[in-house]
Automatic annotation (TrEMBL):
Transmembrane segments: 45-67, 79-100, 121-148, 168-189, 196-216, 246-268
Species assigned in the record: Microbacterium lacticum
This protein's UniProt keywords: Membrane, Transmembrane, Transmembrane helix
Name of protein: ABC-2 type transport system permease protein
Lineage: Bacteria, Bacillati, Actinomycetota, Actinomycetes, Micrococcales
Residues spanning the signal sequence: none
Amino acid sequence: MTTAAPAGTRDAAPAPARPASPYRLSFGRVVRSEWIKLLTLRSTWWSLAVTVALSLAISLMMASAARDFGGGLSPVMTIVMPMQFTMLVAGILGAIAVTGEYSTGMIRSTFTAEPHRGAVLAAKAIVVGVVMALATALTYLVAILLTAPILGSAGIDWSDPAQSWTPLAAGVFAMAMFALIGVGFGFLIRNGAGAIAATVGVLFVLPIVTNMFVFAGESWQWIVDLGQYLPMAAAQMATTPAGDDVLRGILTLAAWPAALLLGAWAALRTRDA
């Protein structure tokens, strides 16, 4: 006679193997996720709207007053000079695109879905930079169309790239870099107010502080010289028509977000979300 084994000691039937999912989380999907997140935020559209409206308004006013500049202002500068004001909106947009996730706790879900935090950082930087570059290029196009009738024969000389295409391309690049500076501070500080304050400090406050030392004498000239490597000064170099320091300005503009994003990547590897 055989004795039945207790129910608790019987071998359980093997569970059927679940079919492998055909979906994989690729970097392209991470970029698409960041694209959706950024463009579904009202703050993004408000920031872009303010940037476009401010840029167009200043361009129209400068074009209307161009005859009062005594011929010393290149026509293309009426398009790119509003960047001195819109750079703040670009930097703030980059900062809140990151800190908004930290304030709501969504960043934990993001890092759970994609444990490779460097991929999240790269995807967010790409999306923010591309959105700002596209918005700036579209703004420049509208500004050119609106100011052309005002400037008339004194308009942009498209046959000379140094007086037209180069400053415009540098302006688009500069606005994207300003936004990425905000992204870098956002990941480093992780607090909305702190990241915005740091971004505004680098883009707007520090240039004012360094310019104060112009009157301080030769012993303080090194501070003035350092100010030439701030993002705003670099943007002015890069967008100056037929300027001699365009390449230096471009490289300086690229170095700021590169350094901040590398620091943010190192911080993400060692800190909790």
